[in-house]
Amino acid sequence: MPALTLRDGVVEVGSAHDDRHLFDALMPTTFGTTYNAYLVVGKTATALIDTVDPEKTEILLGNLKEAGAERIDYLICLHTEQDHSGSVRAVLERWPDAVLVGTKKVAEFMETHNHVPQERFRLVADGDVLDLGGRTLRFIPVPFAHWPDNTMAWLAEDRILFSNDLFGSHYSTGKIFATVGRDQLQAARDYYSEIFMPFVTHVRKYLAKARALDPEMIAPSHGPVWFRPETILGLYEEWLSDDVKPVVVIPFVTMHGSTEVLVERLASRLAEHGVSAVCRDIASKPANLMLETGHMVSDLVDAAALVIASPSVLGDAHPAAVFAAFLAAAMKPKVKYFGLIGSFGWGTRIAETMASHTVGLKAERLEPFLVKGLPTEEELVRLDAYAADLAAKVLAASKKR
Ligand code: FEO
What we know:
The chain is of the alpha/beta class. The chain is built from 12 helices and 24 strands. The strands form 6 sheets. A 7-stranded mixed sheet has the order 1-2-7-8-9-10-11. Strands 17, 18, 19, 22, 23 and 24 form a 6-stranded parallel sheet that branches. The chain has a 5-stranded mixed sheet with strand order 12-13-14-15-16, with no helix packed on it. The longest helix has 23 residues, at about 375-400. The structure holds MU-OXO-diiron (FEO). MU-OXO-diiron binds near residues 79, 81, 83 and 147.
């Protein structure tokens, strides 16, 4: 990705990472990602906002050269996760007089994660302004947007909000501005689901802060810049609301087909009642576990219910289903109902163990639907009643405003 100009004197100098397939060793990045860094040139000083993943340091340095950055007066760190701070040392080696700027928490974390001494920082707090000469950057800490140190910066004269991870997307492109294509919106949703869904109470406040600024552009640290901010602000409002859609997410594991019979019956009956079932086979191929559970998290952004389908293995759920349950609970989705279905061979404690694996999930628990061996016709008829009851609950929940 070359240096890309947002405005005269405001240039994106970061790097694309097209072939990154997984982030945080957890989240599938179907569309790759970018690490955005922004050069802001004032009349008296030049600032670089964030850096890039250490793997891409040379691209950053090359782009800074291409952008004509002869000097960097301020290196601003909005967040110390290494995909943004990993090239700070290299930038400081090239521009040793650059003043590091960040909040107290950023400075503390930079020492922890990158061994850059805290004393190296000029500390800024909420509302502090850095004057670049005709351009100013105001700092807006947004703690626990996902890390305690997340910070935004507001370039008032250009009405550009540098939002760091907030409003980002793992979406690699050679273009600077966001499109509203399906893939890019999906990437933004995926990103929201993994990074921000566990912190909705905080993120709601930060969304309001962003809205109050009325930005002309939102420039995040991943993916393209939103040059029509309403697109992403409106989506965040929807995702952060309590509203759910008539969707049931069903991650499933099947060893010999019996649990799959239950999944297929449940999904088809839900559909007959006007409820969508998103079934994800999380274990039949080795890569499915990471990919399909990652997609499951994104499915859960606005689904009304989660039903985990699993056979029993040594009395507990299948380990892949345990992983899905743990992940779903950790991400704190707004699902209103949680169910468990499955087949067991001769005995099971799956109802008790899955309850403990999903303690963090704030959803009404449905009575587990468990059968011994291959489901009988009589059991499938009972499952039809389970589906009708669940569909009624889901439809009622999705109509509530
Ligand atoms: Fe993109 Fe929290 O780092």
